[in-house]
Amino acid sequence: MFRDPVLFISCGIFKEEIEYLIREKKFPHRVIFLDAALHVNFDRLKASLVDALEKNRAEGAAIKVLYGHCHPEIMDLLKRYGAEKLRAGNCLEAFVGHEEVVRLNQEATSFFLSAGWINNWEKMFEAGKKDFDFDFRSMFKQYKRILVFDTGVIPLDEERVRRFSEFTGLPVERMSITLDHFLGLVKSL
């Protein structure tokens, strides 16, 4: 049986987009998804990432990791396992590029989200509140808007969008994007 020489370990925030790319025959590799809410707890993120790296390095596949700089030790961890990481600071940069994030932020100080992120914000904030009793509302005081990058792959849950706008006190704007930048980054690994 043929074994793919490449294995991807990905943040679950990319799950829908990667599954779309697989269906479109643009992503021919195996992928393991970790829970997207892990990034709110560095200890759990590190433990889950190390577990996935440990379990999969023995088979000899090249390991590619689809995460931004979501953990302060991520580069050291990946180096230890000979894994390569997506060249993006975070998932939003992975979708549009750092320069575009900077440009859009200059228009209006923005809190950027993907459709997957906004559809799961309550789950992520609940995990953070449970672990740290953190008031997430305080995060949004310096922003002027929420900007959602919409690839068209994930239908936006309008009720969750409305609740997020109410929660943050900010308007939610959408920007249609393609998966071209993301796919280019993935292929460059």
Verbal overview:
Helices cover 45% and strands 18% of the residues. The protein has helices spanning 15-23, 42-57, 74-81, 91-96, 98-107, 115-119, 121-132, 158-168, 180-187, and strands at 6-11, 30-34, 62-66, 84-85, 110-114, 145-150, 172-176. The protein has a 4-stranded parallel β-sheet, with helices on one face. Strands 5-6-7 form a 3-stranded parallel β-sheet, with helices on both faces. Helix 2 runs parallel beside helix 3. The chain starts with 5 loop residues before the first strand and ends with a helix. The model has no long low-confidence stretch (mean pLDDT 90).
Distance between the termini: 25 Å
Protein structure class: alpha/beta
Shape, per Cα inertia axes? globular
| pLDDT < 50 runs, ≥5 residues | none
The DSSP helix count reads 9
Give the helix/strand layout:
Layout lengths: L5 E6 L3 H9 L6 E5 L7 H16 L4 E5 L7 H8 L2 E2 L5 H6 L1 H10 L2 E5 H5 L1 H12 L12 E6 L7 H11 L3 E5 L3 H8 L2
Parallel strand pairs: 1-2, 1-3, 3-4, 5-6, 6-7
